[in-house]
Amino acid sequence: MALVVLSVVCASPAPRCQDEPAPQSAFHDPLLPLAQSTDDVGRELLTAYDRFDAAGLLENIATIEARLGSEDELVEDRYVLAQGYVSLNLIRRFFEKHASDDMPAVLEALDPDELAELGIAHAAVYQQAHPKHADIRRVHGELVSTQIRGMLGGMTKGPEAKRLMAEAKQLDARNGWVHFSSARMHYHNPAFVGGDKDLALEELRVLQKSMEPFRVRLYLALTYNAKEMYPQARYWALKATAMAPQNREAKLLMAEIKQRLAEDQES
Amino acid sequence: MSGRAMTVLLGCALLLGACASYDKLVEHDPSVGEQEVYAAGVDGDADEMVPHLIYVLRHRDEFDHAALVAALASLAEHPDGRTADAVASLARDDDEEVRWHVALALKAIGGELARTTLAAMAEHDSSELVRTEAAS
Question: Using the beta-carbon criterion (under 8 Å), do B101 and A231 form an inter-chain contact?
Answer without folding.
Answer: yes
